[in-house]
Amino acid sequence: MVKVYYAPYARSLRVLWTLEELGDAYDGVRVQFPPKLNDPAYLDIHPLGQIPTFVDGEVKLHESMAICEWLAERQLGNDLIVEAGRAGRTDYLQWLWFGEATLMPPLGALVRQTFGPEPGRSDILRDEALAAFQERVGLLEQVLVGKAWLAADRFTLADISVGYSLNLGTLFKLHEQYPPNVAAYFGRLRERPAFQRAAALA
């Protein structure tokens, strides 16, 4: 059975969510965050102390969306991936990486400016991060006009990627300010039973 090391609000939610969507059995191991301070034994598993870690026999992966892609690719016949040459492939790739490369950086800055050591905090940097996140959510609002999902007219890993980032926004109550299309989209994501099962853990 595969093993997933996870923590609340960490990117491991993407992995747990994908496993739940696929119906795969797994062994979830909760790590005390941040592990460098609270769970030093985890550093033997991932020297950088980042979460998640995924282990399946000799396979060990740490990047959340790499894990999600690997899981979806090994199970034939699921709809979570838009394969090369299929309609919606470019949208799929765009939003698969938008969730991490574009939505997450300002959220990471908000985490640091809110929960990091006080000497490194700055109201100016926090406001800049908040404005950057809202700008990116504004782009998502435009893209979701007339669309239920981000790619190929169906739920895919792209939605899991973006959905995790939107969910992290709840830590700062940012979801209360999501514009209408994004708010409706986020509601659809949170209604999925697989999301609810994963979120109950992470």
UniProtKB/TrEMBL annotation:
Domain of life of the native organism: Bacteria
Database matches in SUPFAM superfamilies: GST C-terminal domain-like (SSF47616), Thioredoxin-like (SSF52833)
UniProt KW DNA damage keyword: no
Keywords: Transferase
Domain named GST N-terminal: residues: 1-79
Similarity-based family: Belongs to the GST superfamily.
Name by which UniProt lists this protein: Glutathione S-transferase
Organism: Caulobacter mirabilis
